[in-house]
Amino acid sequence: MTSQHDPIMIKPINEVAEYLKNLVPPNIPEMYSLKPMIKNISDEENIRSGVIAFRDFIYLFCDCLISAGSAYAKPPKKPSGMKDYPFLHNITNLLIDIGYYGILSANGHSLLIADLPLCIATIDANGKKKPPKVSANAKAECFKFLTLCGFIFTDTEVFYPRNPLMLTGLKALSVADMELRTDRRYWNDNYLLRCNYRLIKAEEADIAEELEDFLHPLSDKLREFAIKLHKRYVGMGMTCTLSILRDTSYSYGYISKNRKISSSRDEYALRVFEFCYSLRNGYCLFVRAKKTAKYADIIAAFPQDLREKITAGYGCYKKLGGTRCQGECQGICIPLDDKMLGIREEIERWLDKEAE
């Protein structure tokens, strides 16, 4: 029997970069209202244009990771997940430090930097010295890679000659990441790399619009089917929740107004099904089927592959085989690929029964 402590197979950095690139919103509007805090950063038009410039930078950043990332990003000895590269954690959080603590020059063409808190040793409450979260060597490697991506660093200033407005976008998104997020910030969540411009919008986010962006790498027909399911089950009273935990998912479940819900994690726990994108499985539909005994006759008429998946159910590999968790408690996994288009009616019939 395999040990429960088998090493996680981390994905090559080029595959991680492709994964991250797919999470960047492809369609950022040129006009939208900004939250008051963000308006203080610069001219509103510059901020919006700067965010688009930052999106383009992230595309370039991912392309550089694909072509040259293996020289910089090394996995830890004991990775916690398939994309656990300390280099990515360090460079993302250094970018946030540069954007948040940097001061835009009068012409907006550079960020003036005194200190980066992540790179400074601290003293804890007991008087014990704690090393910086990003070491001098790690900082040097990150700056070297950012130079490859178009940054220029001097002793006190940061430039991006390809498009100076990008620095304004970085500033706005870093402030949003530090001060406007409603979910908990994690040291290793790479949130900035998603270019989540919706944090700075004054208008409430449109979850259907977000979902459409999330599914943009898929074919038109698959996106249309997924959006159809979204509208159908939200119309039936389900709540759609964006969850960025280990993976990115849009989950659907019934949430009672009387039930205490304190976070998206609580809402996610009540899901019936979800659209998920992960390094392990790509784009998938996960269904936590719990009522199959009530509609066995309907399942019996499904195509063999789907019938066998539903009949097999889902469960934790740790319990079933003694191996490290494979995420099998997430639900029955149906890839969002062209094969799904042939069983759209069965998928909808199945979800209808689970949603009753």
Kindly describe this structure.
This protein is α+β, with helices and mostly antiparallel strands. It has 2 domains: 13-200, no CATH class; 207-355, no CATH class. The chain is 42% helix and 12% strand. A hairpin with a 3-residue loop joins strand 5 and strand 6. Helix 3 crosses helix 6 (165-179) and helix 4 crosses helix 5 (136-148). The protein is globular.
Brief overview:
The protein is α+β, with helices and mostly antiparallel strands and 356 residues long.
Keywords:
five-stranded antiparallel sheet; 2 domains; 356 residues; disordered N terminus; single chain; four-stranded antiparallel sheet; alpha+beta; globular
Secondary structure topology:
Elements: H1 13-22, H2 36-39, H3 44-68, H4 86-101, E1 103-104, E2 110-112, E3 122-123, E4 129-130, H5 136-148, E5 152-153, E6 157-159, H6 165-179, H7 207-214, H8 220-235, E7 239-244, E8 248-253, H9 264-269, E9 273-278, E10 282-287, H10 296-300, H11 304-312, H12 317-321, E11 332-335, H13 338-341, H14 344-355
Antiparallel strand pairs: 1-2, 2-6, 3-4, 5-6, 7-8, 8-9, 9-10, 10-11
Helix pairs in contact: 1-3, 3-6, 4-5, 4-6
Sheet with the most strands, sense and barrel status = 5 strands, antiparallel
| N- to C-terminal distance | 40 Å
Q: How are the strands of the largest sheet arranged?
A: 7-8-9-10-11
Helical stretch tally: 14
Count of DSSP strands: 11
What share of residues are in beta strands?
5-15%
How would you spell out the order of helices and strands? HHHHEEEEHEEHHHEEHEEHHHEHH
